[in-house]
Amino acid sequence: MTDEEAAVATPHRPATLKDIAALAGVSIATASKALNGREHVREETRQRVQRAAEQLHFSPNTLAQGLFAGRTGTVGLITSDLDGRFSIPILMGAEDAFGAGSMSVFLCDARGDAIREQHHLRALLSRRVDGIIVLGDSANPRDSIGHDLPVPVVYAYAPSTDPGDVSVVSDNLGAGRMAAEHLLACGRSRIAYISGDVTYEVARERVAGAAAVLGEAGLQLLGGEALYGAWSEVWGRGAARTVLTRFPEVDAILCGSDQIARGVLDVLHETGRTVPDDIAVIGHDNWEPLATQSRPPLTTIDMELQEVGRVAAQLLVEAIDGRPGSGSHRVACRLVTRDSTAPAG
């Protein structure tokens, strides 16, 4: 009996990569490459190795596969906003994508501290992770975590300021367009915009998208520009009073966030305006505990943050597989229609 036949004929011992290589008549290195789908293996050889694996009922050890491929099957995820309502959906989307490929995630909370972030980076690299996702604590662009790193890095939600890095963000310009298009479809034409902090690029992009749509329709925002302030209900209430005083003809108010929109709704109720009959209101974020409990429930823009996480994970896997990308990737947002907007009577 040959060594190859003995390996096949020993039922009590699980088959090994060496057994596969012997049965297929190839080296262990070639068998590993064939089973892991790597390049530089002829198709005929790959099929012969796969047939040998099936014949021996080979069940590869995941860690061993990773070692043969030069990988650990782990990635790092550094966030500065572990408790945030924006970061959690992104984390869920990334983990869903990684889970489908049996990738384990080391989660690190930097708490907005650059020193702590670098500490986590060193710790993850010491664990030989295959790649890293960096999730910011706001949507504003951030500095690159480092260059010439031994593993690929993808930035999610907060893009890197380096155009050579890979970033994944929500399409805020498209979101502004989407919101304005919805209000125009509802028959509204006297539209005000109450935005958040002007120092946030996403705030300016949302306003620019809405203004562009109105311009294409021969209209403009009431007053010719948005009102900028805090991302808060308090700002929403104060700005709403300003809008009603300056533009009593207003028939719709676009808001930079759901919190701002909630403050706007409070003032409209206090002043006897009916929503949406008199004035339609639309928010941004689709923060469901707030949007669904508003009076009336709030039409808003969903940033599709889980999809942002999934795309970031997919791009990281592609980079790990030797197909690195660059630049900013935008994920389309989604309009969630509720009772605060309706066709004008």
Automatic annotation (TrEMBL):
Domain HTH lacI-type intervals: 15-69
DNA-binding is among the record's keywords: yes
Pfam families: LacI (PF00356), Peripla_BP_3 (PF13377)
Keywords on record: DNA-binding, Transcription, Transcription regulation
InterPro entries from the UniProt entry: HTH_LacI (IPR000843), LacI/GalR-like_sensor (IPR046335), Lambda_DNA-bd_dom_sf (IPR010982), Peripla_BP_I (IPR028082)
Molecular function in Gene Ontology: DNA-binding transcription factor activity; transcription cis-regulatory region binding
Top-level taxon of the source organism: Bacteria
PANTHER family, sorted: HTH-TYPE TRANSCRIPTIONAL REGULATOR GALS, LACI-RELATED TRANSCRIPTIONAL REPRESSOR
Protein name per Swiss-Prot or TrEMBL: LacI family transcriptional regulator
Lineage start: Bacteria, Bacillati, Actinomycetota, Actinomycetes, Micrococcales
